[in-house]
Amino acid sequence: MEKTQIDFLWKNHFLKSLALSKLVYPLSILKTPPEEFIILVQDKFDRFLWEGKRSKMTLANVVQPLEKGGLNYPCIKSFILSQKTAWIKRLLDEENNAKWKLFCLNKIKRKYGFPNCSIFFNCNYKYNHASSIFGSSFLDDLCKSWSQINYKEIPRMTADEIGKQIIWLNSSICSKNIPIVSRSLAAKGLIYVKDIFNEYGVLKSCVELSVEFRESNFLEILRTIKSVPKPWLNEMRGINIQVGIIDNFVSIPKSKSIYKSLIQRKYDYNFNLLNEYWIRKVNVAGIDWKLIFKLISKISIINKIKDFSFRFINRIIYSDLKLYFCKHRQSTLFSFCSKDIGDFIHNYWNCPVVQTFIATTMGWYNGAMHTDLKLDIGIYFLGSYSTNRRLDIFTEFFYWVMKWFIHCCRHGSKIPTLHHFKVVLKIIHEDEKAFALKKDKLDQHNRKWLIPVRQLGILD
After folding, report:
1. d(CA 252, CA 336)
2. Tens digit of each residue's pLDDT (9 = 90 or more) over 390-410
3. Of the residues 43, 155, 245, 441, which has the fewest C-beta atoms closer than 10 A?
4. What sign has the CA pseudo-torsion 146, 149, 153, 158?
């Protein structure tokens, strides 16, 4: 009954604990590696996950968390960016009095004049503009990484949003395609677009700005006004401007939260192929994949059932027909019945041997649990969240264990029987209980197993 290959979830755990953990420190302190290195490391990870074979799923799918249909698999590029931003959080942490911070903060203030370094990390600059901010240095590396996370290109903004835009180091406010910056004006308080308007929404003249900010360089003020996009100036005209300090600084979250936000922003699970396959095979429309994957992530606290569910839904399990095409079998016939072609649906549903096992098992379950569940192919394959019917967590779990048991019998060349299934169910119960005790999740375990254990006689 034991599987000869390592589960995807265990492979993912190995990569994170034994490989990725070794890269955390060097990737956070050294300069961001070139794109070729990132691609090479990601390829090494992919080859381990897929055993050196062609990827069965796209990176956009596997990097999603379990409840969204993925494996929570590491994306190296996003991981490196999230590790770099941990230094920005340390820089802005007022309770951190490390001496290295003094050098970085003084360099920012001396070059750009910002009264508060939080303003610097709220500037909206693109990646290709970040390289000109500090040249080749540690801060330059931070700026490049932060620009890929913080930069927002908003095609249409309200007057209030425009007014809160920082003028300096803003990729939308450029002179000769370079973001403008004036150390003297920034140090004297000219920070936001709203600062060049009066309270009635009238653009201030160069003379007014010169007097207000004690700046004698008219050309510097004129360049600042001319660099602001005309649509922004038109949007701001005639709007009552609220005078006061703007407190809209972006709080720097932890690197783990940044990594999750990068995955959500860059990647999205593509359900089109799943929909196309399963609707054709089980004739069920309106499948809510998010609910199905959320259920799969909760059906069991041990990995072997969750890993099988993941493989099954994403069709990573080879049918006997597929094994024949890969030259691992000598016949296209299913090993249980040796009568029909062993495609995916036949292996787990249409085969007479499988149907006999399902009927016998469901008869035992309905009798012991005092239910009258009618099993159809849609609920059997995808769970109750593929239809309007809703089942309890143990029944959903029971269906997945049935499919996993059939899968193990296929690999062990054994005919699935109810007696053998009861033995396996007892072993799974013992494994889950041991894991629940270890992880202090006994209450969760009892909510799922207490009634079924008594009624099904699993401990007999």
Report:
1. 58
2. 788 899 999 999 999 999 998
3. 155
4. negative
Give residue-wise pLDDT tens across range 104-139: 888 888 889 888 888 898 899 998 888 778 876 788
Give the residue from 449, 460, 421 showing the smallest Cα distance to 301: 449
Instruction: Single out the residue of 287, 381, 294, 400 nearest to residue 64, CA to CA.
Output: 294
CA distance 286 to 385: 10
**Residue 331 Cα distances to 163, 253, 316, 323, 353, angstroms:** 72, 56, 20, 9, 18
Q: 385: closest CA among 317, 444, 319, 297?
A: 297
Tokens of 421: 């299934």
Predicted confidence band of residue 3 (pLDDT cuts 50, 70, 90): very low
- 19 DSSP 8-state letter: I
Query: Residue 266: how many CB atoms within 10 A of its CB?
Result: 14
Taking each helix axis from N to C terminus, what angle separates 289-296 and 393-412, rounded to the nearest 10 degrees? 80
Element (H, E) at 208: helix 206-212
Q: Which of 345, 427, 351 is nearest to 359 (CA)?
A: 351
Least confident residue range of 24-28, 77-81, 251-255, 384-388 = 384-388
Ramachandran angles phi, psi of 166, nearest 5°: -75, 130
pLDDT category of residue 460 using cuts at 50, 70 and 90: low
